[in-house]
Amino acid sequence: MSFLKSVTCFVLFGFIISGCGLTKRTVDDENEFPRNNEEFEAELLIDDELPLIEDGTASWYGPNFHGKLTANGEVYDMDGITAAHRTLPFETILLVENLDNGKTVQVRVNDRGPYAKDRIIDLSKGAAKKIDMIGPGTARINLYLLKGDLENARITDIKVPTYTVQLGSYNELQQAEDRTSLIEGSRVEVIGSGDSVIYRVYFGSYIDPNEARIEMQRLSAMGFNGFVKQIQN
Predict the structure, then answer these.
(1) Distances from the Cα of 174 to the Cαs of 168, 170, 171, 227, in angstroms?
(2) What's residue 1's pLDDT?
(3) Alpha carbons 174 and 114: distance in angstroms, whole number
(4) Residue 43 gets which letter from DSSP?
(5) Cβ burial, residue 127 (10 Å; 0-12/13-18/19+)
(6) Which residues contact 28 (CB under 8 A, 6 or more apart)?
(7) pLDDT confidence band for 156 (50 / 70 / 90)
(8) Sheet order of strands, 186-191 included
(9) Better pLDDT: 22 or 76
(10) Model confidence at 78, in pLDDT bands (50, 70, 90)?
(11) For site-directed labelling of 72, which of 2, 20, 108, 131 has its Cα 20 to 30 A away?
(12) What is the C-alpha separation between 65 and 53, in angstroms, rounded?
């Protein structure tokens, strides 16, 4: 019996020590936004220093898109805390305030949309639950910027998507410059940083995607194949 008591005490002591060393994971632990179903540990108060960047109507999307790829290449999790926006750079972090009930949720932009003209953001089902808008389907909201650099973004109007024609992507700057030298009006843009830099050749900037497609077809007839893409940031 004394032996069993000793073992039991040792095990209990081990649990106590290990429990004292446990820390709860927060956003600050890894300095990044939680993904999928992870929750925020802290609530942010809306004050005058928090930049309001847009207001309008939010909607949400779920089952029909669950498991499909989002615009940034992730697998969409409808129960996650994410959002689709027409123009804001991927990984932008927003605070969404439901003006109908005062509830808020923090979301990460990882998809494009909504495409209804009277909506400014599409929330995942998980995010919509946080601000009680599943039943109504839509809500009047304010969008506050928590993380993201809009001052240096390539977008000029967050309400209007901008398109361009991509004519090439290269690992070497000289290759991109050789390509653009053949196409009057084209440009080279550096994408990425550090060791992961690539050089892309673009042509034009368009608000109307149909205009971009017409220009793409004109360039294709000249022997310069490409495709239309939305300028992301």
Answers:
(1) 12, 9, 9, 22
(2) 46
(3) 39
(4) P
(5) buried
(6) none
(7) low
(8) 186-191, 198-206, 163-170, 227-230
(9) 76
(10) very high
(11) 131
(12) 27
- Give yes or no for a contact between 109 and 84, defined as CB atoms under 8 angstroms apart: yes
Q: Shortest CA distance to 178 belongs to which of 199, 197, 205, 163? A: 199
Question: Mean pLDDT, the chain, as a whole number?
Answer: 80
C-alpha span between 37 and 28 (Å, rounded): 17
Amino acid at residue number 53: I
For residue 191, pLDDT over 70 is answered with yes
Return the minimum-mean-pLDDT range out of 74-83, 148-157, 200-209: 148-157
The structural domains of the chain, ordered by start, are 52-147 (2.40.40.10), 163-230 (3.30.70)
Cα(93)–Cα(32) distance, rounded to whole angstroms? Answer: 10
If phi > 0 it is left, if psi is from -120 to 50 it is alpha, else beta; for residue 94 that is beta
Is residue 209 reached through a cis peptide bond, with omega within 30 degrees of 0 on the bond before it? no
- pTM exceeds 0.70: no
pLDDT above 90 as % of the chain: 56
Token code pair at residue 23: 């820390």
In one letter, which amino acid is 62?
A: G
Question: What's phi and psi for 130, nearest 5 deg?
Answer: -60, -30
Question: What is the widest separation between alpha-carbon atoms in the chain?
Answer: 91
Residue 37 is predicted with a pLDDT of 41
Beta bridge partners of 165: 203, 228
Q: Name the CA dihedral angle for 46, 50, 56, 59, rounded to a multiple of 10 degrees.
A: -70
Owner of token pair 């300028």: 231
